[in-house]
Design brief:
Length: 403
């Protein structure tokens, strides 16, 4: 197993005052959550939270939480038996990989969140992984022709991330169906990391969950991103096929089989007032997106480019100045500003991707961080122009460059 790609980031940006790194929506507070539940008159859940016992919960989650998930997220097209609860999304992704990547070839996409790219190769008995590039020239979309070409006779597992991290874009419904048709033809299981689903910038962009759309589809979800419930530490896998669920239960038994009952009840509270929370979080990120769009497309278009995001609270931004994203990140860290450079999303940083960094814009404090970034640009853009003149014709990564 490789070391975490974000290890350098956590070390380098640890003390930053201004964060543009976070990818979650505005974090919930417990008083806010309790107040929202009180406003709908649901005192039962509040009483349950204050008076629950501390016994183990059932492996894979309590029936009441799994029923709520099936009802709220999957429109009762799935039942509690189709849901498997975890302490967050990270271990859920790894569990699915352990269950389905052994004994076959897997296909993943890069750049991406490390677990969605590397988890199949951590599995004993895997028979190889093909990494397909998602490219800015294609608006970070999956190329179905490249997918067809990557399939081998022993391909059995595919990992998607839709909406896509770090790009902040979501594929069309037509493309989703095309990918499913390709995989159905070859009997390939799809794990789709859907942690940014429900934060689409317009409802028209929202896809079906993979668990609802495909008989061999698995949806991975966590409370942290759309609802801002990071500290609740509840995530889940959903799947139509109960036999596949049992395979994952068997793997989960040897990992973290039980979650906290307090966390389960908090998650039920969130689901009970989900629409209100999501509406408020989306309002915040959409206001911030307007600021970020002006920053990139107008105010500092000399230095930044992007594919305008349409889902989630993240964007993958290209720095067109004389530094790589890693170099930009180092200088920003010295100024107390945190971003996520390209090395957080790939094991090999090369080509155009080295110029990209991720910005998060889901929090109400984001405008202060964006203004700090603006002041940084103002202080450096004259020197960037001078560097660009001196280094004309050289690649950014050329070690002979100097300021």
């Amino acid at each position: 197993m490789n070391e975490p790609w974000s290890k350098q980031h956590k070390r380098e940006f640890k003390q930053c005052q201004f964060s543009l790194s976070n990818s979650f929506a505005e974090p919930l507070t417990m008083p806010e959550l309790l107040n929202k539940v009180k406003c709908i008159g649901d005192t039962e859940l509040i009483d349950m939270y204050h008076n629950h016992d501390l016994e183990y919960v059932p492996n894979g989650g309590s029936i009441d939480l799994r029923r709520d998930i099936a009802s709220v997220i999957y429109d009762d097209k799935l039942s509690a038996e189709n849901i498997l609860v975890f302490p967050g999304g990270q271990v859920a992704i790894q569990t699915a990989a352990l269950a389905f990547a052994s004994g076959g070839h897997s296909i993943v996409f890069t750049p991406g969140y490390q677990s969605t790219v590397e988890s199949p190769q951590w599995v004993v008995g895997n028979e190889g992984i093909t990494k397909l590039q998602r490219l800015p020239q294609n608006n970070w979309q999956v190329d179905p022709q490249k997918l067809k070409e990557a399939i081998q006779p022993n391909t059995k597992f595919l990992i998607l991330n839709e909406p896509f991290n770090p790009g902040g874009v979501v594929m069309s419904a037509g493309l989703q169906q095309e990918v499913i048709s390709i995989c159905r033809e070859h009997g390939i299981t799809i794990l789709c990391d859907e942690v940014y689903r429900l934060l689409e910038h317009s409802d028209e962009c929202r896809l079906q969950t993979m668990a609802n759309a495909y008989e061999r589809g698995i949806s991975a979800v966590t409370m942290s991103k759309p609802w801002g419930g990071c500290g609740i530490t509840i995530g889940w896998l959903a799947c139509q096929d109960k036999g596949m669920i049992q395979q994952m239960i068997d793997v989960q038994y040897f990992g973290t089989a039980c979650v906290s009952r307090a966390s389960e009840i908090q998650a039920r509270m969130v689901l009970r007032v989900s629409e209100t929370i999501l509406r408020e979080r989306r309002d915040i990120l959409l206001k911030n997106k307007v600021l970020l769009q002006h920053f990139i497309e107008n105010r500092y278009r000399e230095w930044f480019e992007w594919t305008r995001p349409n889902a989630g609270a993240i964007a993958f931004v290209k720095f067109t100045g004389p530094w790589t994203s890693a170099e930009l990140g180092t200088h920003l860290a010295e100024a107390g500003i945190s971003i996520k450079p390209a090395y957080c999303f790939t094991d090999v940083v090369e080509g155009e991707v080295e110029d990209f960094f991720r910005i998060g814009f889901g929090e109400s404090k984001m405008p202060l961080a964006l203004e700090a970034l603006a002041q940084f640009v103002n202080a450096h853009e004259d020197s960037w122009r001078d560097m660009a003149k001196r280094n004309f014709g050289r690649k950014k990564s050329d070690p002979s460059q100097s300021e």
